[in-house]
Design brief:
Number of helices of chain A: 3
Order of helices and strands of chain A: HHEHEE
Oligomer: heterodimer
Radius of gyration of chain B: 30 Å
Number of strands of chain A: 3
Largest interface: A-B, 36 and 56 residues
Strand order of the largest sheet of chain B: 6-7-10-1-11-12-13-14
Shape of chain A: flat
Distance between the termini of chain A: 39 Å
Distance between the termini of chain B: 72 Å
Chain lengths: 95, 483
């Protein structure tokens, strides 16, 4: 099974990835192979099987509700391209 | 054509934890921008979320309060979308196995009826940051302090048919979360936010119409206005031959209208998948039972107790149980004064009116329940009459004395019940108003009831309001009718 080029463009767009036109065929084939594998698995009867939420057979550890993190804003904002008045600046987002 | 609106609400409740849902950063409101966004909230490489036990506890408490099933296992998913106030590129949320299963909430409709609104589920998730679109040299400023604040999203079934019902439901949720103490419920600060899914269909039709989601409704008043507006917009659109398009709309309270925000296909492809950083949460029966036993008395139980045990009217019970501070205040006044009905009259009447006039919250009331109860006791043992009680109340409110007794003493408001003293005043009044006395005596008996008011007024005035009105009435009647 191959993935339609249109679907590939759609998922690439959702993930904000630019696709080189040359790789489209290869990618369609590769991702299509994965989907084929999924299709094969879909054929298995899973009636009564609890879906696996995580490959590790363990449960979530909880932490107590305490403030433990110190925030060094200056150090963290050193890595940002632009900040002002403590805010991270990003290209304008207009809704 | 008759139309019927169908409404479902998604309510986001900010949980009142000290720290964030997956990190140990503080959740305090109003801090310096980005001073509470730690490496985990910022989604730095290599960090690992660890779930806050208090957030789990609060979610389960809510579930128990709305009669929900609490599944033993619950899991987290990633909801993927790009926006600058979501640094990780996904919101950690729940979809397949939310922490709170189906439940319901009964809301009051009309005078004494109620309607059951089903809750589809409630799930835990993290809040995003805030984007500030004011001008930063043509850029947008991002404050990530709110990123990672725990939210409980409560999703109703589309069981509401009017804006009024939606508001009643929202009020119900608000009072439950504040009763439980799991949220401060402050809508102005965004602790409780609401999205409404609204559609219309011809009355009697089974099939649902196309719905629109209205965002940004952040007060009870706006919820009602925004929904009413949206219902009208959809009906007009269809009656004019148009078609409702499924979309997200933003409510603008200044213009009182909703506006299209974005079209569907762009936005809602969130590609949920299980979060590999978080393991399934398992809750055992003992844990759930323990929380169940620790639940406080809830609004509905209070309402029930107020009517059946304290004999209050359905309406008073409804008003008094709506907020926990008010209910607690009333409970205390009722207990200390020993008369629940009188306490209800004063707390819903004079006391609430004064709070409203001064735009105060109950926590800011200058009058403690002990003080109000002290006043009511003097009313009950007839030390003062109703008129004097209002004066004492005003004086207590203004801080002119600490107890009702101090004020009664200082202002000489003690009621005169001594028959001899009242009779003396009556004799004087009758002597000074001979023409009215003659008129009274000449009148038909059925007219006299009305005429006696004049004499009562004169006697009360002569006693400076301290005479016992019942005694005055009785003595006046005796004197006028016998003579």
């Amino acid at each position: 099974m191959t993935l339609e080029a249109e679907d590939l463009h759609k998922v690439a767009h959702l993930a904000r990835l630019t696709l080189d036109p040359q790789v489209i065929d290869d990618y369609s084939q590769a991702i299509g192979n994965i989907l084929e594998l999924v299709d094969e698995m879909q054929a298995i009867d899973t009636q009564g099987v609890l879906p696996m939420a995580h490959p590790m057979d363990a449960t979530q550890r909880l932490r107590s509700d305490e403030v433990t993190e110190e925030v060094d804003r200056d150090q963290l904002q050193n890595q940002a391209p632009a900040t002002e008045q403590g805010l991270y600046l990003v290209p304008r987002v207009v809704e | 054509m008759q139309w019927e609106a169908v409404i479902g609400l998604e309510v986001h409740v900010q949980l009142a934890t000290e720290s964030k849902i997956f990190s140990g950063a503080s959740t305090r409101f109003g801090a310096e921008p980005n001073s509470q966004a730690c490496v985990i909230d910022l989604g730095m490489p290599g960090v690992l979320p660890v779930l806050n036990e208090k957030a789990v506890e609060m979610a389960v408490m809510f579930g128990l309060a709305v009669n929900s099933e609490i599944p033993q296992r619950s899991t987290f998913e990633r909801k993927n979308y790009f926006y600058p106030d979501l640094p990780k590129g996904y919101q950690t949320s729940q979809m397949e196995e939310p922490i709170v299963g189906p439940g319901y909430l009964d809301i009051p409709v009309g005078e004494s009826e109620s309607k059951r609104i089903r809750i589809h589920h409630a799930h835990l998730e993290e809040d995003a940051g805030k984007s500030l679109h004011e001008d930063f040299h043509g850029m947008t400023g991002v404050d990530l302090n709110r990123a990672g604040t725990p939210l409980l999203e409560i999703v109703s079934e589309p069981d509401m048919n009017s804006a009024k019902e939606a508001v009643a439901y929202l009020r119900g949720i608000h009072s439950i979360v504040t009763y439980l103490g799991i949220s401060d419920g402050n809508m102005a600060e965004g602790s409780l936010r609401c999205d409404a899914n609204v559609s219309v269909r011809p009355k009697g039709q089974e099939k649902l119409g196309t719905r629109c989601e209205i965002k940004n409704v952040n007060s009870f008043r706006f919820v009602e206005k925004a929904i009413n507006h949206e219902i009208e917009r959809q009906i007009e659109l269809i009656e004019d031959g148009g078609r409702v398009v499924q979309e997200t709309r933003l409510y603008d309270p200044d213009e009182d209208e909703t506006r299209s925000m974005r079209t569907k296909e762009e936005a809602n492809d969130y590609r949920y998948f299980p979060c590999p950083d978080l393991l399934p949460v398992e809750l055992d029966e003992a844990y759930i039972q323990h929380l169940k036993e620790g639940l406080p008395e809830l609004p509905e139980q209070k309402r029930e107790r107020f009517t059946s045990q304290l004999g209050l009217s359905e309406y008073d019970a409804q008003v008094l149980s709506a907020s926990r501070p008010l209910a607690d205040y009333f409970d205390r006044v009722a207990e200390l004064s020993g008369d629940a009905k009188l306490a209800a009259n004063w707390v819903t009447g004079e006391f609430s009116a004064q709070l409203n006039r001064e735009n105060l919250d109950i926590a800011q009331a200058p009058l403690a329940p002990e003080q109000l109860a002290g006043l009511l006791k003097r009313l009950l043992d007839e030390t003062i009459n109703g008129k004097a009680a209002k004066q004492v109340f005003a004086a207590l409110w203004a801080g002119e004395g600490h107890t009702a007794d101090d004020i009664i003493e200082a202002k000489g408001l003690k009621q005169v019940t001594d028959t001899g003293a009242i009779e003396a005043i009556i004799d004087e009044v009758l002597a000074n108003n001979q023409p009215q006395v003659d008129q009274y005596k000449a009148a038909e008996p059925d007219k006299r009831g009305k005429m006696i008011g004049f004499f009562v007024g004169q006697v009360m005035k002569a006693s400076k309001g301290t005479a016992n009105p019942q005694a005055v009435n009785q003595l006046l009647k005796d004197k006028l009718d016998q003579a």
